[in-house]
Design a protein that fits this description.
heterotetramer; C: 297 residues; alpha/beta; Trna Endonuclease, Chain: A, domain 1; 6-stranded mixed β-sheet; 5-stranded mixed β-sheet; D: 369 residues; alpha+beta; elongated
Chain lengths: 440, 127, 297, 369
């Protein structure tokens, strides 16, 4: 599918300012190319002319013609019936067929497929399944074909409707979407390497961590005064510096900062510690999202590419997350963190060569350094910049406003760990000072 | 408080005359509302061109080319205390012919930024 | 012409707005303001549009399910839109919970149920009839008048089967049971409106702003994308640019966040929308100030 | 449309920059702005070639010891923190881009700009007196010639001669003169009455001061102490008598964030132009555009979504990353207040923690592969 429509749809400005020409919708319905051509410009305001009036009339007519087309459904040959169960609030397909079953529903041992409610509504809207209710009158099977309106009356809350909308929105764009903590099949976890059979390790770790915290808490109180005093003595005198870096070094310890986990190990540590911490449940992670992939297996899922949290900005109950809420979300994230590989590999290399003293490895590292010598400082600097810009853990926040959704990516980043001060090259340092140094 | 207002007017006056190059600039007190009034050095970019006059908005644009600037102080770390009530008050003191007020926001970073304020609804410029 | 007829018909009745997602009868305990107002009937959607309410289509379009540009029924309204339509008398609220629907379905007597079945069967029969006629017409033209070896009005078993298989089973937008079963149910419209407004202070203020702007002729749509509560259009958004980014309503002595005003007006200038600050005065009326970047400084 | 905003900004940022070729300019910048902070490091030479060299180094080192607090500041009744000395303004700008010229976009170059606007610093300098002088002499010349024409015309008329050619000649002369005068006025200058007040001999009086943001002033009296004012004096003048921590909370939050970025090497400047609190430059405005727009928030703060979305769109429209910088306080407010009262600012600052989040619009159609 082409990217065209999305660039329009998600680029708010254009989406609003360009004419939504529904005659094009008839085109995409006709052939399946899904290419949406450029749309025309709108007018500034009504000018009372008949010409403008008839253009508006036509535009509305086309739109309503499209809306009136009976195009939700299937021919009998392809019909798939999904039976809604009011008590369980799910639907069941007795004879699943069609490609959608690869990425929708939980298969049961008897060959049927259970659809969660949002999956059910989505497939009904697409016309992929017929929504049926078995009225079971007088013990007899009595199938009744529901309408879309009937199906919507089963929504239990605004939150559920919003979740469904976000689900459908992503599905229409081709993403694979399942609820986070979906019980069916197997799903990889970032933490699984440690969790599986290594609970002992984890417990030991937690214990040690607890003791450490206890110790630091006690020691901190009396160490703190000491440290402050020493600092007061040394820091605010006109200290002389032998390099510009030293000036920064002298002031960059003042403000503490949060450094997000950057490696598998640190991830586990933060995750492990937080297992005991109370989790704010206001912001649940609604869905795991995978990029489109034909070889996706729902029974054996690799790490999702994204996870998504939904916020309805007009709901009386909900507030935009504050820092604590964000932290709660980050702690519970479990998806593909693109930064892990890079950082882990870099770290492993260092520890390996340090610990084992492996001559070969060190030689290898040396030769690599040698090769990079030319732009070493530059690339180090560039790498720091890249780390800040790309950040670490992230999730998507879908903000519902009426029936419109905007999606924001929230990413932990860390300016604190990356010192980026400029170190003048020797050539410039040796350059003679300009006259400005001499004051009047 | 009054001297503070005077000092604030001076900042905006100097900024308008010597950075924005306004002419015929003067400070007028409409009772307790001090206004820096003057002529911009060129047509303000937000106005429509004469030949493309936007009839519905044109009555808002002063015919003598004069703009009325109300200075307001904005600290990064203090509340401004500025509300719609403040705006009501300012407009109540201004002569009726003044449809457009310019807020001259004096920031504590050394800059002054200017925003037009209209009572009621105003359409955006066409182009 | 057909369009005009149905148009006139639609205008003659009140549109039906269904409140989805919450149990209203729960009384004060539940948050009535978090129900979602939704319309399913295209005629109703066309009708409220003539009254200046566009809403947002939220359903997947059956014929083009792989995109988010053109969506279909149902139509979701902002609560303000729904309240205004009902208050002015262009629409009525309806509220149906799933279990009630099923109850009413189960409560249908055999006669009614049979009628539904007959309707469906009729639809199938009609489609089949149409397909047969079509098929025969094609056969005729294909074979020409001279061919008499095969009678042209006979369809063999296989073709008949194929035709039956290709009959389209449509999922209809609107319910066949909900409206008839509700017709006699009288809901106190004013009470629902009050209930919804009572529980949400912010909505209460914003509704005054919405109402005022609507009565001035503006169409509103949700405005978070442009940094506001509403985006206001001088006419049908299908044809006209939006003019205003309207902020959340406030009391008139509430402090203005100048930094927020600055970036709002800056953004407004770049997207050609005036940044509008609405306030509610002592009389409970909405008043406005418009802000735009002066273009210098 | 956001592009147009970005363009607008680009124009502003470009205005006032010297027109130099890229490489030349960048080299010049490297030299001019080699110090990121107003305290200059004194590198220890790697080889001591001569005993005298060591002596000179120590002397230099000692000299500078004594001159750290060198910048005078004045705080006026509006709370504006001003540096008025020419050299000091330039020094603070060139050593880390501190402050903003009150009549400039950033670098305090109003005087030079005005000189060039009034054409007072051209190579063949036309000063005001010169202009009036030229104009007066021109006028005189014109009057003289016109008098000659008048005399001749009278003479011819008395003789009863009507010379069409002569009248045409006169007309042309007069027109010519007027054009000349207009042209002179036009391209010599458009001096307003307001400008006349500025001119003092061959120069323009300096109206502009360098204004420091409160956080810059704190940084320059606390972290890199170059202001003559002490931190305590400064703090008291910023907030006279805070009754509760609420009164100083925002200032402290702003400072903590400012110090954080400055101390990691970023050039931090006001973000007001883009509706955010700070802009982060790698080195400074002459080198490249700002890369980040920072919004400082309290850890418990939650605003309506529109607050985030409009700020993010303005910052994003100028092709900058939008950062939510949360400031968390680590000890109770009463304790913080106590530290303030005792002027233990260092300890006060140390009891805050920074958390950063990138906030970016996510487009479903662009993240599928």
């Amino acid at each position: 599918m082409s990217d065209n429509e999305e660039t329009f749809n998600d680029s708010d400005v254009e989406g609003d300012e360009l004419l939504q020409d529904w005659s094009l919708a008839t085109k995409i319905i006709g052939d399946n190319k899904n290419v949406i051509p450029l749309r025309g410009e709108k007018d500034y305001e009504p000018d009372g002319t008949g010409m403008q009036g008839s253009m508006l009339f036509k535009a509305k007519k086309v739109m309503f013609d499209v809306l009136r087309q009976p195009d939700r459904g299937t021919i009998i040959k392809n019909q798939v019936k999904a039976y809604y169960d009011l008590d369980l609030h799910v639907a069941t397909i007795k004879f699943p067929k069609g490609t959608f079953t690869n990425t929708v529903g939980s298969p049961n041992s008897d060959g049927t497929l259970t659809l969660q409610f949002h999956e059910f509504v989505y497939l009904v809207e697409r016309g992929s399944v017929s929504p049926i209710i078995d009225l079971g009158i007088n013990g007899e099977k009595e199938e009744y074909l529901l309408s879309l309106q009937d199906v919507y009356s089963f929504f239990k809350s605004q939150d559920e409707l919003d979740e469904f909308f976000v689900y459908a929105y992503l599905k229409r764009m081709g993403y694979i979407v399942f609820p986070t903590n979906w019980k069916y099949g197997k799903q990889l976890s970032v933490y699984s390497r440690y969790n599986k059979g290594e609970n002992r390790f984890q417990n030991t770790y937690l214990l040690l961590n607890g003791i450490f915290n206890l110790f630091t808490n006690i020691s901190y109180s009396w160490l703190k005064d000491w440290a402050t005093n020493i600092n007061n003595i040394i820091s605010f005198h006109p200290v002389k510096f032998a390099s510009s870096g030293a000036i920064f070094e002298s002031i960059n310890k003042t403000i503490t900062f949060y450094a997000p986990p950057k490696s598998q190990k640190q991830l586990l540590e933060s995750h492990g510690v937080d297992l005991n911490a109370p989790v704010s449940s206001n912001y649940k992670i609604a869905f795991d999202v995978w990029k489109p992939n034909p070889s996706f297996k729902k029974s054996n899922r690799y790490l999702p590419d994204f996870q998504i949290v939904i916020h309805n900005k007009n709901s009386k109950k909900a507030e935009f997350p504050n820092l604590k809420d964000f932290k709660g979300i980050f702690q519970r994230l479990d998806h593909k963190f693109p930064f892990i590989n890079d950082v882990d590999i870099a770290e492993e290399k260092v520890t390996k060569s340090n610990k084992t003293g492996n001559v070969d490895a060190q030689r290898h590292l040396k030769s690599r350094r040698k090769n990079n010598k030319g732009d070493k400082t530059l690339s180090l600097y560039a790498r720091k910049m890249k780390r800040i810009k790309e950040g670490y853990r992230s999730f998507l926040l879908a903000v519902m406003d009426g029936g419109l959704v905007s999606i924001v990516k929230i990413t932990e980043t860390d300016f604190g760990s990356e010192n980026i001060w400029y170190v003048p090259s020797p050539k410039i340092v040796q350059w003679k000072k300009p006259n400005q140094k001499k004051r009047n | 408080m009054v001297s503070m207002n005077a000092a604030l007017c001076d900042v905006v006056y100097t900024n308008l005359v010597y950075q924005q190059l306004w002419t015929e600039t003067e400070i007028i007190n409409f009772e307790d509302v001090p206004i820096v009034c003057g002529k911009p050095s060129h047509r303000l970019t937000n106005d429509d061109n004469d030949n493309d006059a936007d009839a519905s908005n044109s009555e808002d644009i002063p015919s003598d080319g004069k703009e009325y600037v109300y200075p307001i102080l904005m600290h990064q770390y203090k509340n401004s205390g500025f509300s719609m009530k403040s705006l009501d008050h300012i407009f109540s003191r201004l002569p009726d012919m003044i449809k457009r007020l310019t807020l001259g926001i004096v920031n504590d970073d050394g800059t002054v930024v200017y925003y037009f304020i209209y009572k009621g609804l105003r359409k955006p410029k066409k182009n | 012409m057909e369009y005009r007829e149905s148009f006139t018909k639609a205008m003659s009745e009140k549109a039906k707005i269904y409140l989805v997602g919450s149990n209203l009868e729960d009384g004060d305990g539940d948050d009535a303001s978090s129900v979602v107002p939704v319309l399913y009937d295209v005629d109703d959607i066309a009708k409220i549009r003539e009254h200046g309410v566009a809403g947002v289509l939220i359903g997947t379009l059956g014929g083009a399910p792989q995109q988010n540009v053109f969506l279909g029924v149902p139509l979701r309204l902002m609560m303000e839109e729904a309240l205004w339509l009902v208050e002015v008398g262009h629409a009525v609220f309806r509220h149906v919970m799933g279990q009630d629907l099923i109850k009413s379905l189960k409560g249908l007597d055999g006669e009614k149920l049979q009628k539904f079945k007959d309707d469906r069967a009729n639809d199938v029969a009609q489609q089949l009839e149409w397909k047969r006629a079509n098929f025969l017409r094609k056969m005729k033209t294909l074979r020409g008048a001279s061919d008499v070896a095969v009678p042209s009005d006979v369809i063999n078993e296989r073709d008949e089967q194929l035709m039956k298989q290709s009959i389209f089973i449509e999922t209809k937008d609107t319910s066949a049971v909900i409206e008839p079963s509700l017709n006699d149910q009288t809901i106190d419209q004013r009470k629902i409106c009050e209930q919804i407004l009572r529980q949400n202070e912010k909505l209460r203020l914003n509704y005054k702003v919405y109402k005022k702007l609507r009565e001035m002729g503006y169409f509103m749509s949700p405005g978070a994308r442009f940094g506001g509560r509403y985006v206001a259009y001088p006419g049908d958004p299908l044809r006209y640019h939006s003019h205003l980014t309207v902020q959340d309503a406030r009391s008139k002595d509430e402090e203005i966040d100048l930094l927020n005003m600055i970036n709002g007006a800056r953004l407004g200038t770049s997207v050609k929308k005036t940044w509008v600050l609405p306030g509610i005065n002592e009389n409970g009326d909405a008043e406005f100030y418009s802000v735009e970047w002066a273009g210098f400084g | 449309m956001l592009i147009s905003l970005a363009c607008l900004v680009t124009i502003y940022e470009d205005r006032g920059r010297q027109v130099l070729t890229m490489s030349k300019r960048s080299h010049r910048n490297q030299l001019q702005y080699k110090h990121a902070l107003p305290i200059e490091a004194q590198p220890v030479p790697s080889v001591w070639k001569h005993p005298f060299q060591a002596f000179s180094w120590i002397l230099d080192w000692a000299m500078r010891w004594s001159e750290t607090r060198i910048i005078d500041v004045k705080i006026n009744q509006l709370g504006q923190i001003l540096v008025c000395d020419q050299w000091q303004m330039k020094y603070l700008w060139e050593h880390g881009f501190f402050g903003t010229g009150q009549l400039s976009r950033s670098e305090p170059n109003w005087q030079a700009r005005t000189m060039s606007r009034l054409q007072l610093n051209d190579a063949d300098r036309i000063n005001l007196e010169h202009v009036t002088d030229v104009r007066r002499r021109q006028r005189l010349e014109f009057k003289k010639l016109r008098a000659e024409f008048e005399a001749k015309k009278l003479e011819m008329r008395q003789k009863g001669i009507v010379d069409e050619q002569f009248i045409e000649q006169e007309r042309l002369f007069l027109k010519n003169q007027r054009d000349k005068e207009l042209a002179f006025e036009k391209d010599s200058m458009q001096i307003r009455d307001e400008d006349l007040r500025l001119i003092e001999g061959k120069s323009v009086i300096q109206l502009e001061s360098l204004q420091l943001m409160p956080v810059e002033a704190i940084f320059l009296s606390y972290a890199v102490p170059v202001l003559k004012i002490t931190l305590q004096q400064l703090m008291v003048s910023l907030v006279l008598e805070p009754k509760s921590f609420q009164d100083i909370k925002k200032l402290i939050h702003q400072y903590v964030a400012y110090h954080h970025y400055r101390s990691k090497g970023w050039c931090v400047r006001s973000g007001i132009k883009f509706g955010c609190e700070y802009l982060l430059y790698r080195r400074g405005p002459p080198f490249q555009h700002a890369e980040y727009g920072i919004m400082v928030l309290d850890a418990n703060q939650s605003n309506d979504y529109t607050w985030y979305s409009s700020a993010a769109r303005v910052v994003g429209g100028a092709k900058k990353q939008f950062v939510l910088c949360y400031v968390e306080q680590l000890i109770p407010e009463d304790d913080l207040m106590e530290l303030w009262k005792q002027s233990k600012y260092d300890e006060l600052f140390r009891n805050f923690k920074i958390h950063e989040l990138l906030y970016k619009r996510w487009v479903a159609g662009k993240n599928r592969d």
